[in-house]
């Protein structure tokens, strides 16, 4: 691209010198329409439990969910994402609690759908909150078995959709799950259910606090490198997204967010599909702790989110959703 103009006839500071002109030429903006609010669920009654590794974020028992859901509704946040903390007694090798229609997530979907009509509900398809080994799939001969896992993921997806989940979000990174889930949804007359594929999910170090939040951290043996993407790779993201779109995904996710801005931009520019990004728990913890320690100013939150928009995200899953929505609404 040819750069036009020459100093002194051209002065870029001229279009930066007051707030109104900066607002006028701003190329990207963050609105509440861009926000997806993750919520951690727990068993019990009247419980709001702090998550140590994620200051400011809680696990809620179902009867206390109104605390966050009323705010989400008031702020007009378009979608929430549910994540369960499963007690150890309900975990096993194959994560069978994932298929229990009275598990925490299923009960939450039913209860929320009854009361709240204005936002979509997204649910995670993966076995890791339910397995005794903390992996997203079933282990056969010491390996995460792709095709055996698919059978369970398909059932988990259909169960969640039939409970009222609007967006099925497979975060497991097994091969072929999008096509299988799409086919099965069609077969079950659930053709309006949307699939948000975690198409590009890296084997990242930034998920630590989340694993603590859902109680899989201490359980996890080894790492997730045989199914999540290699953090060194770029081109492979094309293949993951291409396959998932062909298989029937409506939206694709890039995860984590800020360390992978190049990937968000790559996917947006090449596929022209809705691209979501996930500002994950480790990113949240880094920023929150730096603010707490007075190393960073509050405004770093907005900057982190606008960077994801600038890279090409349509929407962002962020633990800052309520804080930032409040700020946007008060401006
Ligand atoms: C599980 C899942 C993970 C996250 C969302 N779904 C963790 C993992 O893959 O280990 C991470 C989210 C976060 O760190 O905020 N399939």
Number of domains: 1
What CATH calls the topology is TIM Barrel
Strand tally: 12
* Biggest sheet strand line-up: 1-4-5-8-9-10-11-12
SSE class: alpha/beta
Ligands in the model, by name, code or SMILES, are: ligand PBG
Which CATH-level-2 architecture? Alpha-Beta Barrel
Helix content, binned percent: 25-40%
Q: Give the CATH class.
A: Alpha Beta
Looking at the structure, what is the overall shape?
A: globular
What is the N-to-C order of secondary-structure elements (H for helix, E for strand)?
A: HEEEHEHEEEHEHEHHEHEHHEH
Enumerate how many helices there are, as a single number: 11
Unreliably modeled segments:
none
Main sheet makeup: 8 strands, parallel, barrel
